[in-house]
Amino acid sequence: MLRALERKGLASTRPSVEDGRVKIVGLSRAGFAEWRRVAALFDRLERSMLQPSSDKRPQRFVSAMSEVENLLRAPSVEITPVDPESRDARH
Fold first, then answer.
1. CATH class of 2-75
2. What is the pLDDT of residues 10-63, one digit of tens each?
3. Which sequence spans correspond to the domains of the chain?
């Protein structure tokens, strides 16, 4: 997934100053712009879903959206040991 974001110019990686084995991942300007666009779409969707309801659905929706946000923020990177001479160790 990270490589796909890099290929699309949405993210970049750089080595850590403290530890060369660690890579720092960040959004590019284009990646940040895309993130803001998607966040705005979700905000509009959320508002449209909350407006017409007068029962407990708005609170349930907000709770569900909070859960989705927590799941999206959870680590999605798997770190596994690899042979230092392998292609994966060099990228």
1. mainly alpha
2. 889 888 888 888 888 888 999 989 988 898 988 888 887 777 666 777 778 888
3. 2-75
